[in-house]
Amino acid sequence: MTGRGYLGEFELMLLLAVIHLGDEAYGVPISRQLEKYRGKDVAIGSVYAALERLEAKGLVDSMLGNPTPERGGKAKRFFRITKEGLRQVHETRRVLTRLWQSIPDLKLEAPEEIR
Amino acid sequence: MRRREAPPLARWALRHLIVGDPNEALDGDLLEVFRTGRSNGWYWRQVIAACGVSWCRSLYDRGHVLVFALLWSMLSPVWYATINGIEVFERASQTLGLLWLPLALIGWTSLHAIFLWAGLLIYLAVHTVLGKPLQRKDLRRAFCIVPLVFPPVYGATFLMANLYWYSLPGLAHAKLAATSWGQVSDLGILPLLIRFPYLVALLVALWGTICRVGYDVNPRFVDSVAGWTPTEPDAITVAPMPESTAIGRFLALMVVAGLVNSMIVALLLCRLPESQTASLTSLCLRALVYVASGVLGGIAGSWLYWKSPASPLRGGSPVPFTLFALTCAAGWVWVPAMMLFSEQVSAATAGAAMIGAFTLATGLKCATYFVFTPAQPQTPQWERGELFAESLYRPPFELHGYVIALGLFAAVVALASRSNYTAAALLAMSAFVFAWKNTIPRREAVEGKVQLKRAVIRVASVAVPAILLTLWALLDGVAHRNEAARARAATKSDARPSAYVAPNPKASFSESEIGGYESVVLWPYPEKKQIMSPLAVDDSMLSSETKRPLIIRFDGLYWFLQPPSKRPGLDAHVAQGTPTKVNIESNNAIQLVMDAHQKLSRAIWTAQCRQIEIEVENRDNKAGLVSLGLLLSDEDSSSKKTVYLGQQPIITTEPGHFFFKTKPVFETLRFSLSANAPIRKFNEITVMFLPDIEHTFVAPKIAIRQFELFPR
What we know:
The structure holds 2 protein chains of 2 kinds.
Chain A: H1 9-21, H2 27-38, H3 44-56, E1 60-68, E2 74-81, H4 83-101
Antiparallel strand pairs in A: 1-2
Helix pairs in contact in A: 1-2
Chain B: H1 8-16, H2 24-34, H3 40-61, H4 63-74, H5 76-84, H6 88-96, H7 100-129, H8 136-163, H9 180-185, H10 189-207, H11 219-225, H12 243-269, H13 280-306, H14 321-332, H15 335-343, H16 348-367, H17 369-372, H18 386-389, H19 399-416, H20 420-438, H21 448-492, E1 520-523, E2 550-553, E3 557-561, E4 573-576, E5 593-605, E6 609-618, E7 626-633, E8 642-649, E9 665-672, E10 681-691, E11 702-711
Parallel strand pairs in B: 1-4
Antiparallel strand pairs in B: 1-3, 2-11, 3-5, 5-10, 6-9, 6-11, 7-8, 7-10
Helix pairs in contact in B: 1-3, 4-10, 7-8, 8-10, 12-13, 12-15, 13-14, 13-21, 14-16, 14-21, 15-16, 15-21, 16-20, 16-21, 19-20
């Protein structure tokens, strides 16, 4: 069902945001979560495009809410992670953790010899 | 407190410029964040990003379609050359007579469609081999779309190529390669123009076969509802598909299809009577038949789409076809009059188009009101305190008002520049939008029979003035034609025994009151006390011993044509004058082509001539570069060979050297003739005036003075 066994950076962030938000996961809070942790603006359109891609891969599900007046009569679309999505997040985390453990402590400054 | 509203244009863009169905959730999300205090600039940035992402995604999903269409259309010049080589067309045209045109159109479309269908079959085979078979419905749709898309795209490409025949570099003398491989690998302008309609037809046909996994078609969406309870449990519902939008789009497509079909029928059938003294009764009958044929053609076009496999209305429609056809017929009745006026290059074309569009829009709005309008009328939702905060009436933003105003303004400009087709399209668009927005349909629901009865009465009441307008177009056309025939007869009465008909000095442009000509031949005034060519060619001048040039004073003809004509027709207007003293311009938005032809009494051997100089007289005060192209031809040889010596710009027309001229400027242009030219001798010199866009519709006031031929 999945096209490949690993997730891209943005996809992983989206899946983590969806897990973190739980039942409140729709476009606005998801993009706010990303903005909060990434520290830069996120286009909601690209969030939806990536979520569509994840839905096509079977990593998330979505459903519509009722229209509300503060949204101009437009419905919210709630997202939920699937079992396959959760499995892939765990897998990616495991790989990344192993990779990080194999690397000694890194400092933010560049090494002296490179300067 | 008034609620903040997002920029209307940005909201419109979000709904209409995103690929696929509008994303309601994204629309709502953006509005929700915007109302928390974000700026208009932020909203615009989000909309642009959303549109960009959706377009990129759509293209990415269809990358293989694009690659396949490009590859298959690369082969199309071979197929094109094969079809062009079939000689049965010419024989059939002589045998079948009038029936030839529709049969040829069907046969031509089928032949080109065969190539495209073969491409679709190969695409299907590749998908099947790769284990990704296409849906049968999509394939059927693709096969049906190909012959519908190819002819209009080919026609538009052909029209554009003709309009810019001399402006696009290399097009005027482009030829297809002789071998199949050469045709496939050639990336010149002509093969690319040939490939374009095939590429577009394939792309349009295959575009819909890629079904993007969207929210509304995802089966997991419905499955996931059960067993999942978010924070708004009772609020969660499955949003219905926006069916009215799809139906509305298809109805609009059918209106356009019917209109195009009606125009094709009118173009093929609507002709002025052959007789010069047609009776009023026969003209009335003719007008009646034309209007009826226009309506029937339109109905047939719409019916074909209504019954096509891709139609969403086959399973049931909110508007019965009879009612839809009768409603549209009220607009199509004006098409024959419009076509007759357009053949006469009359500004009344725009008037007829405007009336037709207005009638069509009012009828459609009334007939489809209950399809697109919600059952319950929307009433404003007043918030607490808002009634007192809103003390002044604020008129709503109406984008269509600007569209109508701009359309009217542009139409007036187009009419002033005699672009009748552009003016007709703009006025029709403005009238349609105005009528659509301002027609107030009856709110009460009526029975189908009553609606039909009303539609019949409406068509009948509209048909009477439409027939009268068609009759007027016929009367005006006959009068115009008779006047032109009289003028031609007067012109040809002084015909002199020459290859061309000599002009009557009385038929000068300043005295002519006739609206326009299909082509014009100008015969320059002979200058006094000069020996006129064709000169007896002095062989000694081009002999090996002499270096003196041979001077030939220009006394040939100037041709003023419009593509696709390559020479003046039998009805060409012949007059005396030079281009520097007459005003010739196109009045039908088709490019004007100007050539000068000098016939020589004796052929000159190319081996004896190394260079040709052309002296021109420039009195043109319209800015814009004009170049001259030189063509030498041997009219005596059986194959009528030609050699093109390239083009040279006239320096005084270049942007840096242009100035307003109070007296003529003389200039000499030089063209080298290779000893290895593909012709051995020539007896005609053709000078082609190659203007830029400024002189596309106006002939430059530049005349040829003389040619100087230099010996080797």
